[in-house]
Fold this sequence. Notes:
Radius of gyration: 14 Å
CATH class: Alpha Beta
Largest sheet: 7 strands, mixed
Distance between the termini: 24 Å
Helix content: 25-40%
Shape: globular
Oligomer: single chain
Number of helices: 5
Strand content: 25-35%
Number of strands: 9
CATH topology: Glutaredoxin
Amino acid sequence: xxxxxxxxxxxxxxxxxxxxxxxxxxxxxxxxxxxxxxxxxxxxxxxxxxxxxxxxxxxxxxxxxxxxxxxxxxxxxxxxxxxxxxxxxxxxxxxxxxxxxxxxxxxxxxxxxxxxxxxxxxxxxxxxxxxxxxxxxxxxxxxxxxxxxxxxxxxxxx
Length: 158
């Protein structure tokens, strides 16, 4: 897992949504804005949908603090587009198909569900400051109320 104070690992990945430029997003291109990266397991599943809807509900408030909200999963851009359309999402979603970015941020690992062990994305949120450094980390996120907590942290970040 990355640590607070470290430079957030750079990436350029396929993306859809407000912060995407010609279908891609490069993290450093968003500076000097603050960035919320939220890593989530899969489009259109209950927890992931709730989280995306919560970040969408607060998108204007994040923008008012100079903060971009970026969701990252292994889903394809086609799935992201379908997910955004189905739920009216107003945030940027990035496709990390090979999980390289997830691995560099420490969110890809072994998980267990109903006695089954498999590799997957651990729901994690990272707040990056205007210099590109990690300002806050939320590992093993519980969805309810999370977007509001992240928004308050973005407001508190100078």
